[in-house]
Amino acid sequence: MFQFLNPVWLWAMASVAVPIAIHLWNKRQPKTVQVGSIRWLQPSESRKLSSLRLTQPWLLLLRCLLLLLLALVLAQPQFKRQVPAVPEKHAYLHPALFQANALPLVAATVDSLAQKGWQIHTLQPGFPALPLNQENSIQKFQSDSLVADTTNAWAMLRVLNRSLPSHAHAWIFTSDLLRHHRGKYPQLRPNFKWVPVPVPQTNVWLQEAYYTSKGQLRLQFGRSDAQEVTFLERTVAKPAPGQTLSVPDLPAVKFSAHAEADSLTLQGGARNTIPLAKEPLRVLVRYAKSRQADVKYLRAALQTALEYRGVAFELTVSGEPQPLPTVAPNWVFWFTDEPLAPFLARFPKNRLKTLQDAPASARVQKSESWLQIPGLAAHVPLHQRTQAPENPTAQVLWQDGYGHPMLTQQLDSLQTHYRFYSRFHPTWSALPDNGQFPELLLRLLFPENTAWQTFYDTRTLPQELEQPRAFSGSFSENSPKTEEVLDLKPWLVGLLALLLAVERWLAGRGSKPKQATI
């Protein structure tokens, strides 16, 4: 069917009346005939309407057609027709399925799809296509690398829902591992099939390591299977450079010495490498004379937390005007109005963490609220606080009962800065008298490394969520109708140019003067 994008220009077709009127009222100039006398001429009636006749009909027709075509071009006509859509057929493989222990499970199915004309893609951003044919099998793309992939399959499924046409068919092959399916399960179209491939495996990785206060080395291992994740701790003697540590019921660990920080590499399982600090953990508490009571509570909680962990540490409590240490600390608790920046400038290449509380110059606000701290079941009463400025780059860790920030974290190059908008004193909050205060400090000093959830976790999806479907070799495909649009404007412009050339040729031919004959 025809349609016009700018139908208002169709009114311009009425302009054909202009050349018609010009042709009808165009009178030729009368010729003057010189005679000797008019007495021999017979009188005749004047016929004024004798000139209202078409003198050049083909030229008039061409000019009318030119105006009609110009109006059509401006109206932008299009021709639409319904045509059956050819269904697109795609198959997507999660990158984790290219490992040697997973690809053989889906190779026959994927090759069968490729031979039936399906496009095979990797389930990654951009969905790169794989050139599969009779000569190239999916086995050609098998990878023996142990690098863990972090692609979120459900996020990619949501992208496919939005990007593929409505008539497209898709099979999506993923592993059944929980870490490859983060977030909410997406609602898939009826012509999409999600196939979770069971890849049974058990993984072991090295979670963390540190030297104890007794000079030993404490190792923490993570172990995951299809149902659960557990962590195991082992304590061994301090190794020599290059030594391989044998741990009962766990893979061996190789110790490597370096100039700045040592490293440990797991010889089996995930084969991951983690750093090992050579020096003990150094904690500095700097305080003003008016903050001695606050430091008493903080020092006791820090001492309890560090001794419980068993890590080698050095706790330095420095009050004004004592000189500051010259060795770079790992943690700085700054309970004074002294500027902190000059002290940090001494160690521009060190990874320092600082915590500052409410300064003496800040306006104190009375509060009848509480501290909301993740992992703490009971609310901690809050009596006084200071106002937290707007800072969109800071991450809020603790809040008060009204949702206002109480403890924030901000990264600055190599340094991490914490701001507590209250104080560790009973007149400010009940936190110093809370039995979980040392545990909360322990979380700040040693934040949990959650990288294992993305790289090493082998827990599988719940059985009620998995709905594996085997490839049967045949698909029920519908043939939805779609529209094919043909833009007629280029054709009309070409015809307009041709008619204009013909009109100019006819107009030039008619204007040539006729030669008189004798």
Question: Which key phrases capture this entry?
Answer:
518 residues; Rossmann fold; 21% helix; elongated
Q: Layout of SSEs?
A:
Elements: E1 2-4, H1 17-25, H2 57-75, E2 77-84, E3 89-93, H3 103-115, E4 119-122, E5 129-130, H4 153-163, E6 169-175, E7 192-197, E8 203-211, E9 217-224, E10 229-236, E11 244-245, E12 253-256, E13 262-266, E14 273-276, E15 281-287, H5 292-309, E16 313-319, E17 331-335, H6 341-344, E18 353-356, E19 364-372, E20 380-386, E21 395-400, E22 405-412, E23 415-420, H7 437-445, H8 452-455, E24 481-487, H9 489-510
Parallel strand pairs: 3-4, 3-6, 6-7, 15-16, 15-17, 17-18, 18-23
Antiparallel strand pairs: 1-2, 2-24, 4-5, 8-9, 9-10, 11-12, 12-13, 13-14, 19-20, 19-21, 21-22, 22-23
Keywords: Membrane, Transmembrane, Transmembrane helix
Pfam families: BatA
InterPro entries: Aerotolerance_reg_N, Double_TM_dom
**What is the name of the CATH superfamily of the largest domain?**
Class I glutamine amidotransferase (GATase) domain
CATH fold-type name of the largest domain: Rossmann fold
Helix content: 10-25%
Query: Uncertain regions: pLDDT < 50 for 5+ in a row?
Result: 48-52, 468-479
Number of domains: 3
Q: Provide the residue-averaged pLDDT.
A: 84
Total of DSSP H or I helical runs spanning 4+ residues: 9
Termini gap: 62 Å
Q: What percentage of the residues does DSSP assign to strands (E)?
A: 25-35%
- Major sheet: 9 strands, mixed
Q: Can you list the strand order of the major beta sheet?
A: 16-15-17-18-23-22-21-19-20
According to DSSP, the number of beta strands is 24
**Which term fits the overall shape?**
elongated
**Secondary-structure content class:** alpha/beta
The CATH class label of the largest domain is Alpha Beta
Radius of gyration: 43 Å
- In the CATH hierarchy, the architecture of the largest domain is 3-Layer(aba) Sandwich
Keywords: Membrane, Transmembrane, Transmembrane helix
InterPro entries: Aerotolerance_reg_N, Double_TM_dom
Pfam families: BatA (PF07584)
Organism: Rufibacter quisquiliarum
